[in-house]
Amino acid sequence: MPKTAVITGGAGGMGLATARILGHDHRVVISDVNGQRLDDAVTELKELGVEADGVVCDITDRAAVTALFTRAGESGPVTAVVHTAGVSPQMGSADTIIRINALGTIHVTQAALAVAGEGFALVNVASIAGHMLPGFLIPKRAYKLADVDVERFTQKLVAAASRGPKASRPGSAYSLSKNFVIWYSQRQAAAFGAKGARILSVSPGSFDTAMGRLEEASGAGKLLDHAALKRFGRADEIAELLAFCAGDRPGYLTGTDILCDGGTRAGLTLKGMIAMARGA
């Protein structure tokens, strides 16, 4: 049976670029909430010789995520998952962002754990924004609710993101949600390890995707002032990292986050972060 890779958000820039790479030696099942975009992406992959299927999936719905993994496993064992699905501050309210980015990651991670076996890998996409949250603003008590009461967890994170001015709430929700993705991926490492499987997160900086360009004027562009590489990253560059992490070769890589930001965080001082926050 062929190996199967599941890629959420697989019709988007990073997800589709990753599918092109993993499709060299995997059957690829991509998901998205937009059926037309999904059909177009599957057609493109098949034209490249990739064995691909598409499944419409709302990751905020646990039953839909379970159905995605069931469908993916019908033609071969699922050995890799790359979870790129998510939204940015310009794409929704604080509640929407928390539900898609944080609750959605819980659903995908738990569904992945249920099918994980020896050699399996899950790569969750976080963000440089998750690294820029001051420690005193990280609600780790709320994070710990993720495994016991997801609705209360969601309410707590939305409340935490809603403490500031209304205009800043989507940005706060995004940073919180991506910080949670990093934390949760590390927390689940032991559970995956018990099955001989791996889990980690990758945190992109400013990338030249539709979502990245949507955020250009509200922060992604300003980050380049602090970067070592004064340009947006390309979708194929982050896809190479995501596909490598989900593959067989980095077999001892788990329970950590990889920051891929063109040297932005290395050059961003506290003064710079405060200036950016005030500018927003």
TrEMBL record:
GO biological process per UniProt: fatty acid elongation
Organism: Parafrankia irregularis
Pfam families to which the protein is assigned, alphabetical: adh_short, adh_short_C2
Positions of transmembrane segments: none
Similarity comment: family membership: Belongs to the short-chain dehydrogenases/reductases (SDR) family.
Stored InterPro entries: KR_dom, NAD(P)-bd_dom_sf, SDR_fam
Signal sequence bounds: none
CDD domains linked to this entry: SDR_c
GO molecular function terms listed in the Swiss-Prot or TrEMBL record: oxidoreductase activity, acting on the CH-OH group of donors, NAD or NADP as acceptor
Entry protein name: NAD(P)-dependent dehydrogenase, short-chain alcohol dehydrogenase family
Domain Ketoreductase: 3-186
